[in-house]
Write a structure and sequence with these properties.
400 residues; disordered C terminus; 2% strand; 64% helix; two-stranded parallel ribbon
Length: 400
């Protein structure tokens, strides 16, 4: 049987066309809905496009968890297409042969479709970010000096475009390096970083379109927000490491693990970063104690994250960020329920996807809260800033 090359660029043009078609609908709808926006410098149109791109990126991230959770990451063993075709339909003979040889193996028709739908959505998001970048630069060049000073720097969507290209490269490596745990985790974290970039831009664009100012908060409260965001990002990375190493079921009870408060664990093996899936760096099979260490570290750090989220949500209740406070407390509760469900219900798909989505929501809400606030320098906490900070790469730093 002829070996399929890992990279086959033959279907690239057709995949890009599919991405354009996916993005065309929302682009046309947003353009038509905000067709009278020219007098406002196009700020509302750009805001709507940014918010929609954020929403679709969030959906992409949630669907991106499905290939991993259904063992479909190698449903198409090459990139960017499927056996050199733009869809599993064109690769039906190759998929049938692989499925016949291994009916429960990594390549089946259902797994191929799951993997390719994820790639189609990713291509659509890429096209939307290209459109976002082009529109931002066109508006920047057309705007006057005063409007340019107030608007969000077009370098933000430009940097986001570079980021999404890097994310695509990690997506390719995820397949060609056969689900190498470090690469898969980096791909996950890249998706979280993309969400954060778009959330920041969406918040700034919304402030600009509504002429809304940022809330002045105490320096200590802002520091707590940054600390919570850092802890959540670390916990997402630990959760990604649990998932990519399939260590969720190393502990199937709560709050103890394997009937003990401190079960046998091998942290050296568990957190050896550069190794193949299920193997140590020396090529030996990964031990169960290593999987336990991965799982239990994620669980223990979750207690720290929950404490920070509750403290921050409670502290923000009396500020202008009441909406974000309620969102943080609600999502923290959701994360506890779905995380517990993964452990005691044998990792159900719905709970696993919701748990991954909750983590992405936490990052989005925290970035949103940071973008909507600033440190109150020598002023009362309830004071408002005269206008949103709006520069970015290539200009003065944003207040978030």
């Amino acid at each position: 049987m002829e070996t399929q090359p890992l990279y086959d660029l033959a279907p690239l043009a057709r995949l890009m066309l599919l991405g354009v078609l996916i993005a065309l609908g929302p682009l046309v709808w947003i353009g038509w809905r905000h067709r009278g926006d020219r007098g406002q410098g196009g700020s509302r149109r750009l805001q709507a496009l940014t918010v929609f791109t954020l929403f679709l990126t969030f959906d992409l991230g949630r669907f991106g968890a499905v290939p991993r959770l259904t063992d479909s990451g190698l449903g198409c063993p090459d990139w960017p297409g499927c056996y050199g075709s733009a869809s599993p339909i064109g690769a039906k003979d190759e998929i049938h042969a692989a499925q016949t040889a291994m009916p429960t193996g990594p390549v089946t028709f259902s797994k191929a479709w799951i993997e390719m739908i994820h790639r189609y959505l990713a291509t659509g998001v890429g096209v939307l970010i290209i459109a976002l970048t082009v529109i931002a630069w066109v508006q920047h060049r057309r705007a006057g000096a005063e409007a340019r000073a107030a608007a969000l720097s077009p370098w933000w969507p430009t940097f986001t475009l570079v980021w999404v290209c890097m994310q695509g490269a990690f997506g390719a490596l995820t397949v060609t390096m056969k689900l190498f745990p470090a690469i898969v985790t980096l791909h996950l974290m890249g998706g979280i970083g993309l969400l954060a970039l778009l959330a920041l831009q969406a918040s700034r664009q919304s402030q600009l379109a509504a002429q809304r100012s940022t809330a002045a908060l105490s320096r200590g409260l802002r520091a707590l927000m940054w600390a919570t965001l850092a802890a959540v990002v670390m916990q997402v990375a630990l959760g990604g490491w649990v998932s990519t190493n399939y260590a969720v079921l190393a502990c199937t009870e709560f709050p103890a693990c394997q009937g003990q408060w401190w079960p046998p664990m091998d942290f050296r093996q568990g957190f050896e970063v550069w190794r193949e899936l299920g193997k140590t760096g020396s090529g030996e099979n990964l031990t169960f104690a290593a999987l336990t260490a991965i799982h239990y570290t994620h669980r223990l750090f979750a207690y720290v994250v929950f404490a920070l989220l509750i403290a921050l949500g409670w502290a923000l209740r009396g500020t202008a960020l009441k909406t974000q406070a309620r969102a943080l407390l609600t999502i923290a509760l959701l994360q506890f329920i779905t995380g517990l469900s993964n452990v005691v219900l044998d990792w159900p798909l719905v709970a696993a996807v919701l748990h991954t989505g909750g983590a992405a929501l936490l990052v989005t809400v925290l970035v949103w809260a940071l973008a909507e606030s600033r440190v109150a320098h020598g002023a009362a906490q309830g004071e408002r800033h005269s206008g949103p900070a709006s520069r970015g790469p290539g200009g003065p730093a944003v207040s978030a």
